[in-house]
Structures are given as C-alpha cells and as structure tokens.
Amino acid sequence: MIFDRNNEKAVVALLGAGSMGTAIVRRIAAGKKILLGDISQKALERVSDNFRRSGYDVETCIVNALEKDSIEAFAKKAAELGPVMYFIDTAGASPNQASPEHIVNLDMLGTGYAVDAFGKVMAAGGAGLIISSQAAYMYPIPNEIELQLVNTPTEKLAEVPFIKEVALQNSGFAYMIAKRLNHLQAQRAAATTWRERRARINTISPGVIVTPLAYDEFNANGAGYQAMIDASASRRVGTSDEIAEASAFLLGEHATFVNGTDLLIDGGVIASIRTREFKLQG
Ligand SMILES: NC(=O)c1ccc[n+]([C@@H]2O[C@H](COP(=O)([O-])OP(=O)(O)OC[C@H]3O[C@@H](n4cnc5c(N)ncnc54)[C@H](O)[C@@H]3O)[C@@H](O)[C@H]2O)c1
Q1: Ligand 1 and 66: CB distance under 6 A
Q2: pTM of the predicted model, to two decimals?
Q3: Contact, 157 vs 185, CB < 8 A?
C-alpha cells in the first residue's frame, strides 16, 4: 500500500527519540516527513515502526549527540529530505543516570552543537524547540556569568571557569547549569543564526514528567521527588502528552511572535521553591 503520494513535505527532525520527543512529533507531524535521530538503534526501530503503523512517513538516523560531527551529519540528512520546518531536541541524561562530564557533554554541549547545526539548515518560517528542565530554575547563575556564557561559542563553553569549577562538581549541578544553558543557547540562536534564517527557537522546561528517565530519578531519590510533588500547586506529576500540547503551540502558526523564550511547565514546583513553601534539599 502507498499511504501518501506527496513527495514535497515539510521535514520534522527529532534528536532523541524518547518519550517526550515522540509524543511531540506524533502531535505535529501528520502529513510531514519525520526524521528520527537517536543513539539507540533499538529505540529507532521500535519508535519508527510505531509511527509507520499509525500512518506517519518516517526515516531514521543513528546520531550520537555527544559528537559534533554526528549532529552535523544529522542536520545535513534532514536538509536533504526537504525544507526543515521543525527541529526538536530531547536528547539528554538526568543527574541519576550519568556523570557530571557526561551531562555537560550531552545536555549542554550536544544541545549547543545541535542548535548551531540546525541554525545552518532551518527553512524560513521554521521553528525549533529544545527540551530543557525545571532544574534550569534551581541554580541561580550570576548575571555577569550568564552574559559570558551566552556569548561563548559552543566549542569553548567547557573552558569557561564557571563550567569547570562549578558545573563539574556533581551531576546535580551539571544538570541544573546545562539546562539553564539551554535557555541561553536558544536566546543566542534566536538573536543571531536562526534569526538570519528567519526561523524561531524556544525552550520548554518540564517538571516531573513520567518517562523511563523519570523512573531512574524516582528510584534514586523517591522521597525527595515525592516531597516536591506534594508541595506543588498541582500535587501531581505531568505527562508527555501535556508537553506535546504546549510544544504544538510553540512550534505552530499561533506562536509566530514567540521567540527566544522559555515555557516552564512544572505544576507549580518552581513557584513553591521561589516562595520558600518548599525547600529544595541540598
Ligand atoms: N522526564 C522528566 O521528568 C524530565 C523533566 C525535565 C526535563 N527532562 C528532559 O527531557 C528530555 C527528554 O527526556 P525523556 O524523559 O523523554 O527521556 P527519554 O530517556 O525517554 O528520552 C531521551 C532520549 O535521548 C536519547 N539519547 C541519550 N543519549 C543520546 C545520545 N548521546 N545521542 C542521541 N540520543 C541520545 C535516548 O536514547 C532517549 O531515546 C531530556 O533532555 C531530559 O533531561 C525530562
């Protein structure tokens, strides 16, 4: 059966074919060409099979988001498939999954290289979305250091003293700082490279969203997460489908004036921390 005879389609490129990423793509990619990139061949096979069986047009590409060359090859492949109208980056590791070095290399530098690479191939009118985290709001970085970081090219970020001396102290610091960097990376791109291509880019900072990654966090620090959920205004965790709904807005035609900004979707966790209703341990 040939389900779809259209050849010229907008391309939706997803880096990190995990829980949130696939929910976002499913929400926006009907009638478009999907390019899934992930380090796991198994994940790519499972997810692309699910998409095909649901009527989506999908291709896959092994990508290691720890390697600049691999990310650039992924962006090139996306551009060869057609006009790249959407780029979504959800490749990441959480504090209880990885060392500080791995988190800095993947969540911070890998995201930076992806934003840089897609800043060379996005089509005019296109939109990008980086999945950051509520953790980005948990470690206030002094303004002068943020200014230095926002103006540092990706390949030089790891040399900044703040990254070497603070971010690499432990996986928690690495994650909070890397996720805040994602906001700054989107801001810089929105103002420079993506602006030149007339494409928009934003971030979403999710709170606790139940996915396999979140289960690794619950297994390591269940009591801490329970206390955080209990103290939040919503008193519950979130779902990937809720993130997908907000993503569809940010990537879509009703958000063309939304650019270089972050949307925090955390059920009120950061509000409870900022007002000292909840005290973050450590
Ligand atoms: N789940 C949560 O509670 C939560 C909350 C806030 C932020 N986040 C962030 O959201 C993003 C997506 O998380 P998720 O919960 O959907 O996780 P997930 O584990 O389902 O998805 C992550 C995907 O990234 C891929 N990946 C890992 N390393 C890679 C690499 N080197 N190269 C290419 N791909 C790689 C994994 O194979 C996986 O498919 C992550 O950046 C995470 O930090 C998650």
Answers
A1: yes
A2: 0.97
A3: no
> Strand pairing partners for 38?
62
The Cα 274–Cα 277 span in angstroms is: 8
How many residues comprise the chain?
282
- Find out whether the beta carbon of 19 lies less than 6 Å from any atom of ligand 1: yes
- For ligand 1, say whether the CB of 119 is within 6 Å of any of its atoms: no
Q: How far is the CA of 21 from the centre of ligand 1 (A)?
A: 8
Domains belonging to the chain, first-starting first, are 11-209+240-268 (3.40.50.720)
Radius of gyration of the chain (CA): 18
- The CA distance from 158 to 105, in Å, is 8
Give the up-direction half-sphere exposure of residue 10: CA atoms within 13 A in the CB hemisphere. 18
Residue whose pair of structure tokens reads 């965790």 in the numeric block: 237
Q: What gap in Å lies between CA 64 and CA 37, rounded to an integer?
A: 8
Regarding beta strands 11-15 and 122-131, do their DSSP bridges make them parallel or antiparallel, or are they unpaired? unpaired
Give per-residue pLDDT as tens, 71-89: 999 999 999 999 999 999 9
Q: Is 112 helix (H, G, I), strand (E, B) or coil?
A: helix
Structure tokens at 250: 């940010």
pLDDT higher than threshold 70 for residue 282: no
Give me the amino acid identity at 22: T
* Alpha helices in the chain, H assignment, sequence order: 19-28, 41-53, 68-81, 100-103, 111-118, 143-150, 161-165, 171-191, 193-196, 212-231, 240-251, 269-274
Work out the number of other CB atoms within 10 angstroms of the CB of residue 19.
19
CA distance 177 to 190: 20
